[in-house]
Amino acid sequence: MASFARFLRLPRLQRLAASLRQLGWRDSAWLALARLLAAVPGRRCALHRYQFVAQAVAPGSLCRGRGRSIAVTPCLAEADLPCGPARRPGALGERYRQGAQCLVARNAQDADQAAMAGWIWLLRHGCQEDEVRARYALASKQSSWDLDVWVHPDQRGGLVFARLWEEANAVLYAQGVRWSCSRISRFNRASLGAHARLGTHALGTATFMRCGRWQWMAASVPPYLHLSRRPDDIACLAFDTSRLPQYPSLELTCRILKQ
Q1: pLDDT the model gives residue 241
Q2: pLDDT at 106 (0 to 100)
Q3: CA distance 37 to 43
């Protein structure tokens, strides 16, 4: 029994148990496969599993006056971006060429007030995916796309996430947008939980696997299956929010601020 107890305390077994608790057996199996593919020399293989969601855009305040020390302002050029999380080389420039708007949060209470506390990216007419060969199209003119919502690890658990969404809602609502769509990694339960507390609607899922030049896709939305080898052979997934219910306000403040 003692040896069995020591076996159960092995780090790998503990990580497996934690993964099963957080992700469930299905996504845990996908995550294990993703890690195996990531170990292939030369980064020739990868697996990504996404959840697509839509969040209501409506007038109102997420923070109700709190978090005033956190300023959220647009950054209009890549050269003006503060030091932030590492992204694939060229990815940020591609976002700007697509017409993306980046909102940057800074906390005046930090010693370095120029440092970035978080960011969110907004695209009005769909999005070219950073990680795989895919494009996300929006059928409704009242929809927009948001991506790469990031909060500095030292700022998590505070009001930076809520302030970013508060400002994004104000910007999008002024443009006539009523739903903001996004994709989230199925392996990132923290992000899925944070978006769920904002009141999101599930739009579908997709799994992408890449080996060398080949890419396979299986999705719950059209075209459902896609196989490509060339860089210009891109899967296009369309999302229509026109039939989703509309929310009159953003009175989800308490659930967000208590996370």
Answers
A1: 92
A2: 92
A3: 8
Class of residue 9 by CB neighbours under 10 A (exposed 0-12, middle 13-18, buried 19+) = exposed
Residues of the chain falling short of pLDDT 50 = 4, 7-8, 248-249, 251-259
Q: Kindly give the pairing relationship between strand 134-138 and strand 235-239.
A: parallel
**Both tokens of residue 150?**
């990031």
Tell me if 143 sits within 8 A of 127, measured CB to CB.
no
Please give the Cα distance from 124 to 130 (Å, whole number): 16
Q: What pLDDT, on a 0 to 100 scale, did the predictor assign at position 27? A: 87
What is the secondary structure of the chain as a DSSP string?
-HHHHHHHT-HHHHHHHHHHHHHHHHHHHHHHHHHHHHTSGGG-EEEEEEEEEEEE--SS-SSTT--TTEEEEEE-SGGGPPS-----TTHHHHHHHTT-EEEEEEETTSSSTTS--EEEEEETT-EE-SSSSEEEEES-TTEEEEEEEEE-GGGTTTTHHHHHHHHHHHHHHHTT--EEEEEEETT-HHHHHHHHHT-EEEEEEEEEEEETTEEEEEESSTT-EEEE-STT--EEEEE--TTSPPPS----HHHHHT-
The answer to whether 130 and 98 are in contact (CB under 8 A) is no
Distances (CA, A) of 13 to 5, 8, 23, 172: 11, 6, 15, 45
Residue-level pLDDT at 60: 74
Contact 118, 161 (CB under 8 A): yes
Report the distance separating Cα 238 and Cα 206, nearest Å.
12
Q: Cα–Cα distance between 161 and 144 in angstroms, integer?
A: 19
pTM of structure:
0.82
Measure the CA–CA gap between 156 and 160, rounded to whole angstroms. Answer: 7
d(CA 259, CA 254): 9
